[in-house]
Design goal:
The chain contains 5 helices and 5 strands. The chain has 113 residues and is an alpha/beta fold. The protein has a 5-stranded parallel sheet with strand order 3-2-1-4-5, sandwiched between helices. Helix 4 packs parallel to helix 5 (99-112). It is globular, with a radius of gyration of 14 Å.
């Protein structure tokens, strides 16, 4: 069973729909910094925990998959955190902002396999 966490509620909401509509998977939590957005989304989306702390998000033990749909400049660091937790990862483009970051991501993921 895929138990997903989503980062970001722009394009991340499309990821939410895709994951929740896929057999054998469900979204258990969504990380969003904007508390006004969280308040609105809680009215529409039920049975999902909304988290506004990235630290709390990555400390969750009940997710095994993360969808990163945050602003581009956060992708790199969020990928590193997800890889450290050995989570399966999908990322909105771009995956990172430069080749140095890409090499670090590649190295860490290979090491964590």
């Amino acid at each position: 069973m895929i138990k997903a966490g989503i980062i970001g509620t722009g394009v991340g909401l499309k990821h939410f729909e895709a994951i929740n509509n896929y057999r054998g998977s469900r979204v258990v939590c969504i990380f969003e910094k904007n508390q006004k957005k969280i308040k609105k989304l809680k009215k529409k989306i039920k049975n999902v925990d909304f988290i506004y702390s990235e630290k709390k998000f990555f400390n969750r033990k009940d997710i095994n998959f993360v969808s990163i749909a945050s602003y581009d400049e956060y992708h790199y660091f969020q990928i590193l955190k997800a890889a450290e937790k050995k989570l399966d990862i999908i990322v909105e483009k771009p995956i990172c902002l430069n080749f140095k970051e890409l090499k670090k991501i590649n190295s860490l993921i290979k090491k964590k396999k």
